[in-house]
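Hey,
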Amino acid sequence: MKVIGISGSPTKDSNTDTLIKEILDGTGAETEFFKLPDLKVGPCIACMKCVYTNECIIDDDFKWLSKKVLEADAIVVGSPTFYGAASAFTKAFIERLFSMRHIKCITSGKLAATVAVGVASESMVSEWIGNALRAGGMDIVGNMTAKGTPGCFVCGVGESCHYAIWNAYSKELTGMDLGVEAAYEGYFELLPDNKPYQHGSAKILKEYRSVKDEPDVMAEAERIGKMIREKMESE
């Protein structure tokens, strides 16, 4: 039994990486982990030359990575959320899986799980990844989300930036209360004179949010890993 993990996070030792690896460990199987930003996997160019072969003609790292996907019994795909969507690294990988679903759908029957880490839109990203893998005939065993570290915590000007992520997701801008302030209680504090996209005013209390400090999140990753193992053993 073999399980591979694919991370679309460009951050070294990111929360996305951590959760994918925890799921892999939970499977108790032979595993491999791949970080897309360290590879060269470009987007699909819609040439349609993969239709009868199920092989993409683009000469980059997807050539060998696709073979890793085929060898695996299960795949775990994770991404941070950028602008409310999966990272470009993740999306390019997902697009290239298109080459493997023509006519034969050679990824059909594989098990899969998804991970998305973000500030407010991680559930949508996890669902999108899951739907894309399901379109390739994969059985989604589990999906999970977690809160991550907003770039505004570490960019150096987040406390005074009018366009900080907490302002971008504010009720004043979106018309909805997306719960960012509540979700990051203890991590940052909005000050009374903060006005979204007019005057930024906040106090950052912690610069990094690590899933390793959240036992419930880590336990969920381990649980999904065990679910994958149980599913593999039952088939």
